[in-house]
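User: Before I run my own analysis I want an independent prediction to cross-check against. Here's the chain; please return only the structure tokens and, at the end, one sentence I can use as a sanity check.
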Amino acid sequence: MEDEYIEDSDMLDVLDKQIVHALTADARIPFARLGAILDISEQTAARRYRSLRRRGMIHVSGQVNSVPLGHTKWLLRIRSTPSRAPVLAETLARVPDLSWVSLLSTGYEVFCTGRPRSAERRDELLLRLIPRVSDVLELSVHESMRQFPLADEWPRYGRLLSARQLSELGPRPSLWEPSGPESPVTLSREDGIMLTILGRDGRAPYAQISAATGWSATRVARRMSELVESGVLYFDLDFAMGAMGYNARALLWMRVRPGDLEKAGLTIAAYSEVAFLSAISGPANLFASVACRDTAHLYRFVTERLGSLEGIGDVEVTPALRTYKQSQTLLDVHRPGVVPSL
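Assistant: Structure tokens:
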């Protein structure tokens, strides 16, 4: 099966897509450098970016990778009473430690990921806060043990840039190798302030962060670089998937023979439909989030792509009925898949 890219969305033209890919490689790239790489003016680069953001097509945010902090990422499946599941999803979407909050097609199951920055916050979320909510009937918790790096950052627009342009952008640093730093990274109060600001706007100016932390702009830039190099801080993009032509998002829970898990993960990570892939704990040992054009596309992906791989014994497909929150962006639930202007 050939890669099924979205080529006909009238919401993004080629230049928009090139800018999107550049941001996946370097979310804080200066507009002057972006313009030079794409052979456009600095003003055009800035205007296009602001248009993308104003229209709610993208949102850049700074994210905390909990592994270098000595913690991990958790995937949560929460069963609720059918009538209360949407309210539960809306509530969980407002919890800062939780992201990718979705109501699954069963209508009474909520999925989300958790990235608590401390053991105390982890225990608060998993042992007290969520289990004690009256609408929660069952909680299933899975640890992300190995996140597989994608061959090209989603939505995989890198093919629209020349070899020279890709070389000038450089590779995005890989954060997902199994081993982390030798010792956990410690965050200061000022680090926390900076990370909170970047969580709201990944391109927040150094001057804004400087005013909030009391650091000089030079120190802000240096500390930000240190956190990126340590793997604690990375930058992510949220997208208006529906407006970009991706109308079928699904979560796949796969059972793979342990000896085939690494090979299967690396193979699946290269597929264009895959936005996230991780080896996990629990009955299923491989989890994927995929974005497809429609249900027929999703069916072909499951039967042809996954069905042809050795070692996969079972696949549970749970389509996302509605997404309430992406990495940090609360979505307009009245217009599923659309990111409100921020």
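Sanity check: The first strand starts at residue 58 and ends at 64.
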